[in-house]
Specification:
- By secondary structure, the protein is mostly helical.
- It has a single domain, classed as Helix Hairpins (Orthogonal Bundle).
- It contains three helices and no strands.
Length: 69
């Protein structure tokens, strides 16, 4: 998921993507713990997607604060 894609999404869609990514990361962690995880790079990709989403959310909040002043 690219940053430009995230900027084009609405807030509710962004929150939905965040919850989906967190759920996927949890499932990947369970697979890793049980020895069933075959694609270990997927965990890194999902963690980075979560970080990108958090960054976009915080930037939106910051710009909303500055706009309110």
């Amino acid at each position: 998921m690219k940053g430009k894609e995230l900027r084009d999404l609405a807030d509710d869609v962004l929150q939905k993507r965040l919850s989906d990514a967190r759920e996927e990361l949890m499932n990947l962690r369970f697979q890793q713990a049980s020895g069933q995880l075959t694609d270990t790079t997927r965990m890194r990709v999902v963690r980075r997607d979560i970080a990108r989403i958090f960054t976009e959310v915080s930037q939106r909040e910051r710009s909303a604060k500055e706009g309110a002043k």
